[in-house]
Specification:
Helices cover 25% and strands 23% of the residues. By secondary structure, it is α/β, with parallel strands linked by helices. The two termini are 27 Å apart. Bound molecules: adenosine-5'-triphosphate and magnesium ion. The site of adenosine-5'-triphosphate (ATP) has 14 residues, from helix 2 and strand 8. Adenosine-5'-triphosphate binds next to helix 2 and strand 8.
Length: 570
């Protein structure tokens, strides 16, 4: 189990179930509110619009918006749009849609780093005038080489002590497009011998002659993350700037910029462990590669752990929030098991989905003592425990299909499904007893002949005898055939992070079964209305594909198969 797992936020163990445990950020916030340092809190979620959001981002979203909600503050959505080369409006639209779908709302507080480009430029000029920044015209490689190492201090650039007016003029030239990309950068003048490498005169601006999706061609210099981020936090009066642990080393620089610029507020940075899951990749660079090279069917492929992929697959926003909640917030990096996400999805869908009949691998069953032309309308409960789901009519006739896995010719003990001479319940219908097994020339079972007990309508025998097995089924005459897509994990190894990570894709991550028989009412299901196929799993109509005007179903997650467990034990 991942370390992080041990004490999830808000969940105590049985002994102290009433004591709500707080995560370390909540502790800080409560102190800040109690001491009067802040009257209320403001957090932000700051995505770079260079890809779609994934389950890792969901952790940051739930944390930032969740804290604002819990403490009566607010949370901003800020697009960190400082790299025009990789950004796209497709991404900014998708990100907003996904945050809303997860259940969060930034209200009027939508911000763009690019809205502050003028302010950032002015502040940079002030730093130059104060001798705290300079234009360096060395090639990137030289600047990099002079940074030093953890053991060796860095070396001063020959441009470091140039007069402020000269830097100011060159900075204006950079801004006016007079210099080529790579010809110059603006650097903060801090300390080339600092043990903290990020303080060794970090780059604040680079030249990029690219059209920005919001500012067009106004700018050809763009601020670096470290420079822009803290200042935007200050501009928005962010009180707690929460980011992932890899930014811990950047915190001294974050503080230096905030201290050395006349900002309207002083934000503080806090770091938490990012969410990592096994059997998947989370970096946007890799997700983009999967999409661009067509290893998956777009950013919202149901096997992708993007928010849009999880939505298309059929996960509910609440299941994702519950999962994030169960993982907790800490400073310990760990890898969470994919099974935990699947369990959260299963738990939520169990509560919110209606049940319907679908037979994945149909085996024909003929009820020999049922009148040939008779058919009848039965009443089926839509949920086993929640009455509010109501009931629906279900048609029954002489020929039905059951799942092949529900019959064994020579069953072991404890197999409570159908077998020669055995009696089972067809759910909501009748009790049937297997009388005969029909095989083809190759010995494959092609049909079962059964008899039914006419006095067991609804599945309850008149004499009250106990019948253990209950099977799902569809009426042969009424059933419709649909395509179902069975998903498995996208990668076959736990940590697909080696150079050959693309070779570690699971070849069976999607298996198509287009011979599934379902009750007709399932054809009315729309994407985003997940259902349980009785005894099989949770399914959702795909939002992209349909077949012959009928929905194609994605398997969200299977049910726990109790028989598989027994069979394994032997
Ligand atoms: P990637 O490294 O996958 O490209 P990123 O961190 O660069 O992602 P951003 O758009 O900058 O992506 O992320 C927005 C916010 O989401 C940041 O505050 C970042 O710390 C947070 N975030 C990203 N990935 C995770 C994760 N796996 N767990 C928790 N928070 C994350
Ligand atoms: Mg980032």
């Amino acid at each position: 189990m991942a370390k992080e797992d041990v004490n999830p936020a808000g969940k105590g163990n049985a002994d102290d179930a009433v004591v709500e445990s707080k995560n370390f950020i909540e502790e800080v916030i409560e102190q800040d509110l109690a001491s009067g340092k802040h009257q209320s809190i403001i957090t932000r979620f700051p995505p770079e619009p260079n890809g779609y959001l994934h389950i890792g981002h969901a952790k940051s979203i739930c944390l930032n918006f969740g804290l604002a909600k819990k403490y009566g503050g607010r949370c901003h959505l800020r697009f960190d749009d400082t790299n025009p080369v990789k950004e796209d409006v497709e991404f900014t639209d998708a990100i907003q849609r996904d945050v809303k779908w997860l259940g969060f709302d930034w209200g009027e507080h939508l911000y763009w780093t690019s809205d502050s480009f003028d302010q950032l430029y002015d502040w940079a000029c002030t730093l130059i005038k104060e001798g705290k920044a300079y234009v360096d015209e060395q090639p990137y490689e030289d600047i990099r080489a002079q940074r030093g190492t953890l053991k060796e201090p860095g070396t001063n650039s020959p441009f470091r002590d140039r007069p402020a007016e000269e830097s100011l003029a060159r900075f204006a030239d950079m801004k006016d497009g007079k210099l080529d990309e790579g010809a110059a950068v603006l650097r903060a003048k801090i300390d080339m011998a600092s043990p903290i490498i990020n303080l060794r005169d970090p780059v604040m601006y680079r030249i990029k002659k690219a059209t920005h999706h919001r500012t067009g061609d106004k700018w050809c210099i763009y601020p670096m993350y470290d420079w822009a981020h803290g200042q935007c936090d200050a501009i928005e009066h962010i009180t707690h700037s929460i980011c992932t642990l890899e930014f811990e080393n950047h915190r001294p620089l974050y503080d230096w910029f905030v201290d050395n610029v006349d900002v309207p507020a002083v934000p503080k940075q806090y770091e938490f462990a990012r969410l990592n899951l096994n059997y998947t990749v989370m970096s946007k660079r890799k997700l983009l590669k999967l999409v661009e090279d067509n290893h998956v069917d777009g950013w919202d492929d149901p096997r992708m752990l993007t928010i849009s992929g999880l939505r298309r697959r059929g996960c509910t926003p609440r299941s994702i929030r519950n999962f994030i909640d169960s993982v907790g917030v800490s400073r310990n990096n760990g890898i969470i098991d994919m099974g935990k996400l699947e369990a959260a999805v299963r738990d939520d869908l169990n509560e919110v989905t209606p049940r319907m009949m679908a037979v994945m691998d149909p085996l024909k069953v003929t009820i020999t003592n049922y009148p040939d032309d008779q058919e009848e309308e039965l009443v089926a409960k839509n949920h086993p425990s929640d009455e509010s789901f109501g009931t629906r009519p279900l048609m029954f006739a002489k020929e039905v299909f059951i799942d092949r896995a529900d019959f064994m010719e020579d069953p072991p003990k404890k197999f409570f499904r159908l077998a020669p001479g055995k009696e089972v319940r067809l759910k909501f219908a009748y009790l049937v007893t297997c009388q005969e097994v029909i095989k083809d020339d190759d010995g494959n079972i092609v049909e079962l002949k059964v008899t039914y007990d006419p006095d067991s309508r609804g599945g309850m025998p008149a004499d009250g005898r106990k019948v253990k097995g209950t099977l799902h089924w569809v009426s042969a005459k009424h059933a419709k055939q649909v395509e179902v897509r069975l998903y498995d994990r996208l990668f076959s190894v736990e940590k697909p992070d080696a150079d050959d990570w693309l070779d570690q894709l699971n070849p069976d991550s999607m298996v198509i079964n287009d011979k599934v028989l379902v009750e007709p009412a399932l054809l009315d299901k729309k994407p985003g209305e997940p259902v349980q196929f009785e005894r099989t799993g949770y399914f959702n109509a795909d939002s992209r594909y349909s077949k012959d005007g009928q929905p194609v179903f994605n398997r969200v997650v299977g049910l726990k198969d109790s028989w598989a467990k027994i069979a394994k034990k032997g």
